[in-house]
Design a protein that fits this description.
Number of strands: 2
Shape: globular
Largest sheet: 2 strands, antiparallel
Helix content: 55-70%
Structural class: mainly alpha
Strand content: under 5%
Oligomer: single chain
Strand order of the largest sheet: 1-2
Number of helices: 15
């Protein structure tokens, strides 16, 4: 056990720090049980850019820019920044869009799923079960040889294009130049910590996750395929940190329950299916939404494409009535999740058997 803690101290530290940051951001203004959620933050950015018209979820979240820049700084400092891309970009865009559709069915990314569970939201248990089921499905195809083809070396300028573009957009949003960025006056988009605090929080998370390779999908994948608990241990620490912090902050008001949870619904079936779609698509992409952001910060344009797919997916969700609310999932959202399973299954099958055919 001592050797395990010594070998995994960075991932364990990362889980603890993210848990503290999630609690702090929640206390400083971010929505309840949503101190840190990549899917929710990307959804709000899509709204801020005018890509959807849902007035309650529009704000250019500094945390996303912080994650990208923190990852970039860590990669540069440790000489790991490398421009690379060209690995099935269109498929990655599509998979990214369906990751977001599944996440907005559940109302949170894998990171928020753990934060919700640590905060007492038992709906996250159904999400966790679904996420694990999706990981199993994706891992089965990995075992059979699923492959999105190799990435190629590209210029560092191209690799840095996405983080730089997001930084420029963020500066424009904060400065108010042009006055084109939208910001909610009520609802989740109106709830946020001071932008400097959020940006610094994102920088810390991005830096630590680049060094630790923290990824919920990758952690469960490693457990399933290699019986390796290293990556998943960071999320166990994250859960425990949020749980202890919530007990302290909420006191007697804390309770494990399905109902009455902030920014959540109680439809267990669709919580399960939404996160199952997220898990399956994330395995095919090579990482959860948080990991895709970190990789994009390292110069991986394929991951940048996946993140753009997530932003587009958020726009689809709120323009076409796919996103869930506290009242539960919509009929359109259910259709979209089922369609997502069909598309992800087709991509899994085609990219598995296409590789095998090429080897024969």
């Amino acid at each position: 056990m001592k050797e395990f803690f010594k070998r995994n101290r960075l991932i364990l530290t990362t889980g603890f720090v993210i848990g503290v940051i999630a609690l702090a951001l929640g206390a400083l203004g971010n929505p309840g049980n949503m101190g840190f959620c990549v899917a929710c933050f990307l959804r709000d950015i899509a709204g801020s850019l005018g890509l959807h018209g849902s007035a309650n979820v529009q704000y250019f979240r500094p945390e996303i820019v912080g994650i990208l820049l923190g990852s970039t700084l860590a990669a540069l400092a440790f000489r790991e920044f490398k421009g690379r891309g060209g690995s099935s970009p269109v498929l990655r865009f599509i998979l990214g869009a369906f990751v977001m559709i599944g996440a907005l069915m559940f109302l949170g990314c894998p990171l928020r799923m753990i934060i919700r569970l640590g905060s007492g939201d038992l709906n996250a248990l159904l999400g966790l079960a679904g996420f694990f089921a999706g990981i199993l499905a994706g891992a089965a195809f990995l075992k059979k040889g699923f492959n999105l083809k190799r990435a190629y070396t590209i210029s560092c300028v191209e690799g840095a294009a996405f983080p730089v573009a997001m930084l420029v957009l963020f500066i424009l949003s904060v400065s108010g130049i042009f006055g084109v960025f939208l910001s909610s006056e009520e609802g989740p988009g109106s709830l946020h910590a001071f932008w400097v605090v959020s940006l610094v929080a994102g920088l810390v998370v991005g830096f630590l996750c680049q060094r630790s390779r923290m990824c919920m999908a990758g952690g469960l994948r490693d457990v399933v395929l290699f019986r390796d608990c290293s990556l998943i241990s960071g999320f166990i620490v994250l859960f425990l940190t949020v749980l202890v912090g919530s007990l302290i902050l909420k006191g007697g008001a804390f309770s494990f329950a399905f109902s009455g949870q902030p920014v959540a619904h109680t439809d267990g079936l669709w919580n399960f299916l939404g996160m199952a779609l997220v898990g399956w698509a994330s395995i095919l992409l090579g990482g959860c939404p948080l990991r895709q952001l970190v990789l994009a910060g390292e110069g991986n344009s394929d991951s940048a494409i996946a993140v753009l797919g997530m932003i587009a997916g958020a726009a689809f969700c709120h323009n076409w009535g796919l996103a869930s609310s506290a009242d539960g999932p919509t009929a359109n959202g259910k259709v979209a999740v089922v369609a997502g399973f069909v598309v992800v299954a087709l991509i899994s099958i085609i990219c598995t058997f296409a590789k095998k055919k090429g080897e024969n």
